[in-house]
Write a structure and sequence with these properties.
Helices cover 77% and strands 0% of the residues. It has 24 helices and no strands. Helix 1 packs across helix 2. The chain is globular.
Length: 625
């Protein structure tokens, strides 16, 4: 019977994902509705899932998979709004919802009311897929994803503190802040350590399937120790995912990353569908418990409507001033940055001179270890100081200083081109849906909680209601509000990136072979980011084949082809290195960087595959009688 249920669930997930585009409804909503309908069938018994299954078994790999796909440069740029929404908003929502529940339900103690507020406060990163499908700008998606990944720690700390206060009788704000700080710090350390160590381990694995199997353990290797050390296991899994997504292009072979990404996409699809399907299936059992214990279902419905409305209102009350603060902060930073154009230009010229090795005896070093901040460093340019060190160290420091200037300049351009205005704020407010975390957190309420089944019903109604109401109306809100939408990469940016790739490829080819780089047969578009390598291989393949019995010419031809493939691989790897360096500085959009990296990965896989086939063919010919 259990096997039949699993098979039926997998088929339901596949079917919902397949027909969701035709119905223009997110798969999560279809699975939720399907679970509710099936759960209320007379032949289906009440289903109850242990909260540990969701919190410890499903959410860590799901959040890890989401974190791996987030561009780290965008996440760094949006860290301030993410922190506000993940910490301040959750704490404020818990207090407001708890206070209102205490007023409308005098029988509910304050501590339990705040615990319920913490349950209803976190948004769900899984539900953000609904907003992404609509094509809203990547900046809004990054903020929503970052919030959904990190607000679990705040909510669970507030929840555990409120439960402790309700059971033990008292707790202090200092204890809550201490618990939150411990949870975050431990999660950061453990998540970073696990991400780095597992990446270096996986870099030594030669089989892509084995590497994928190891990657399945990473979220649990991060979450389990973090939980035992008093940290947030979910945040540790997120940090491990961020480290993996950022570092894997430099450490893992492309075939390993592509195979792992495809497999993880399947796992993410199954886990996401499982959460919403189970959420719908559990509703029947919870309703039956409320009918037996009270209060009434009607009371739960209007309280769920009230709590859901409060989540939206409190969210709007935080998002609106946050956007105003971000706008003012951005204007101040842009003004300061523009006001430093002249000293910055002088600073860059001197750094360029040092990076080129032009270090005269009387050169004053344009930086000072004892100073912090760009402005103070620039103010001290005329006073600089000499340091007894090697020219190589001078050059490295100058290059690092230039990279920092380029990064800040790229950040300023990013904020100018993609401002977060009132229209984007409206989408951020309406897209903050509740989901699996709310249901899992509600199930962690202890048995001694007053009217536990009633509180569980409110939680599932709020989560399901937000997914249905906000999820179904979000396309309409996008059409009415008309925020900035994600569009294709700018042609000028594409041309600039193409120039970077061609320049990186030219740096590794020998003198006299430059004509091969651009000898491609008409393929000039960005669709082939590594067109130079394809041109080299095509050039070698078009050479006239020797006569069948001319062994000497055949050997020379094979040697030339091997040399060409080796050169092509060097070019691809040099292009990837240049692309990753540019991505870390934020010089190009994250979408364009990801697209170009994917093209380079497939280019390298093709080249390696051709080399393997050629070696196999040569071995077969040599072994033939």
């Amino acid at each position: 019977m259990t096997l039949l249920i699993i098979v039926a669930g997998l088929l339901a997930i596949a079917g919902a994902s397949q027909i969701s585009d035709r119905l223009r409804v997110a798969p999560a909503l279809l699975l939720l509705a399907m679970g509710i309908v099936v759960g209320f069938l007379p032949v289906v018994p009440a289903i109850e899932i242990e909260p540990g299954v969701i919190l410890e078994g499903v959410l860590p790999p799901l959040l890890y998979a989401t974190a791996v796909g987030i561009p780290t440069i965008n996440f760094r740029r949006e860290l301030a709004p993410v922190a506000i929404l993940a910490v301040v908003l959750v704490a404020l929502s818990s207090a407001v919802i708890g206070g209102v529940l205490t007023l409308v339900l005098p029988s509910l103690p304050v501590a339990w009311a705040i615990a319920m507020g913490a349950v209803l406060s976190p948004t769900d990163a899984v539900a953000i897929s609904i907003a992404r499908r609509l094509g809203v700008t990547q900046r809004v998606i990054t903020v929503l994803e970052g919030e959904g990944l990190l607000n679990d720690a705040t909510a669970l700390v507030v929840l555990s503190s409120a439960i402790s206060a309700a059971v033990a009788g008292s707790t202090s704000a200092g204890e809550v802040l201490g618990s939150f700080a411990l949870a975050v710090v431990v999660a950061l350390v453990v998540g970073w350590a696990v991400g780095e160590l597992t990446l270096h381990l996986r870099a030594r694995v030669t089989d892509a399937s084995v590497d994928t199997v190891i990657s399945f353990t990473v979220p649990f290797l991060a979450a389990i120790p973090a939980e035992h050390m008093g940290g947030s296991g979910l945040v540790a899994a997120v940090v491990a995912g961020l480290v993996t997504g950022h570092r894997s292009p430099r450490l893992l072979p492309p075939d390993h990353r592509i195979a792992g990404a495809e497999t993880w996409h399947t796992v993410e699809l199954v886990l996401e569908g499982f959460i919403f399907l189970v959420m719908g299936l559990q509703l029947f059992g919870i309703v039956e418990d409320v009918r037996a214990e009270g209060p009434s279902i009607t009371t739960a419905l209007w309280l769920a409507l009230l709590a859901g409305a409060l989540t939206v209102l409190v969210r709007a009350a935080v998002v609106a001033p946050m956007l105003g603060w971000l706008r003012r902060r951005g204007a101040r930073r842009a003004e300061k940055w523009d006001g430093m154009s002249e000293p910055l230009q002088d600073f860059e010229e001197r750094c360029h001179a040092i990076a080129r090795g032009e270090i005269p005896e009387d050169m004053i070093v344009p930086w000072d270890h004892e100073r912090r901040g760009v402005r103070r460093r620039l103010k001290g340019l005329s006073k600089g100081r000499r340091r007894e060190t090697s020219p190589a160290r001078f050059q490295a420091r100058a290059t690092h200083a230039l990279d920092r200037i380029r990064r800040v300049d790229a950040d300023m351009a990013y904020y100018r081109q993609l401002p977060l205005g009132a229209r984007e704020g409206a989408i951020m407010v309406w897209a903050g849906m509740r989901g699996a975390v709310t249901l899992a957190a509600a199930q962690t309420l202890p048995a001694e909680a007053p009217n536990r089944s009633f509180l569980l019903l409110i939680a599932i109604l709020v989560a399901a209601g937000s997914l249905v109401i906000q999820g179904l109306t979000l396309p309409w809100v996008v059409r009415v509000v008309r925020p900035r939408m994600e569009g294709p990469a700018d042609d000028a940016e594409r041309r600039e990136l193409m120039g970077l790739l061609i320049s990186a490829a030219k740096d590794v080819i020998p003198d006299g072979d430059e004509d091969r780089l651009t000898a491609d047969d008409g393929r000039k578009s960005m669709a082939l980011a590594a067109q130079g390598t394809s041109a080299l291989v095509a050039h070698a393949a078009r050479e006239e084949a020797p006569e069948p019995d001319d062994e000497e010419r055949w050997a020379a031809r094979r040697e030339e082809q091997a040399r060409t493939r080796a050169l092509a691989l060097d070019m691809v790897r040099a292009q990837r290195q240049a692309l990753l360096d540019a991505g870390e500085l934020g010089l190009y959009s994250a979408g364009l960087i990801e697209y170009a990296l994917t093209r380079l990965d497939y280019e390298e896989i093709t080249l390696v595959y051709r080399e393997t086939i050629n070696e196999t063919s040569q071995a077969s010919l040599a072994a033939a009688p």
